[in-house]
Design brief:
The chain has seven helices and no strands. It is mainly α and about 140 residues long. It has one domain. Belongs to the TSR2 family.
Length: about 140
């Protein structure tokens, strides 16, 4: 059985999970492109709730492999296969946050709050025309 978190630690962990997922580039791409359908954003919010529940309410010991499997299955439900190691990284970060919250240590979550979200743009930038410099008579 998992040890219980204080009320403050539970709030901090929930925020840490939300911040971690919101900064996961692969998940953001899947949501922005609606690879899991129009409700991709709602699905991602449910993932946060499921992870929080698993990390705090599970009657059995939670292992990093359990979290990795949850993340992998979720991303597959968004039609997204991840092979960049980010699932393992996210799972490890969540487990570390949970352990720190159990100790009343919120440093990693505080650092997340203080860190700016990297700006990632998926919009296409206009490309210069390959015909520039040939003159209009070249197009005739």
């Amino acid at each position: 059985m998992n040890p219980a978190l204080t009320a403050e630690a539970a709030v901090q962990l929930q925020e840490g999970i939300t911040l971690t997922l919101s900064r996961w580039a692969a998940l953001r791409m899947a949501i922005e492109n609606e690879w899991g359908g129009r409700d991709s954003l709602q699905k991602s919010q449910q993932l946060g709730d499921l992870l929080f529940h698993r990390l705090t309410q599970s009657k059995e010991q939670v292992y990093i492999d359990d979290i990795e499997d949850m993340l992998d299955e979720f991303m597959l439900s968004l039609n997204t296969e991840i092979g960049d190691g980010s699932i393992e990284e996210i799972a490890e970060n969540l487990m570390v946050m949970r352990e720190e919250c159990l100790e009343g240590n919120f440093d990693s979550i505080k650092r997340l709050k203080e860190t700016n979200v990297p700006s990632v743009s998926y919009s296409r930038q206009p490309q210069p025309s390959p015909f520039i410099g040939f003159g209009e008579d070249w197009l005739d």
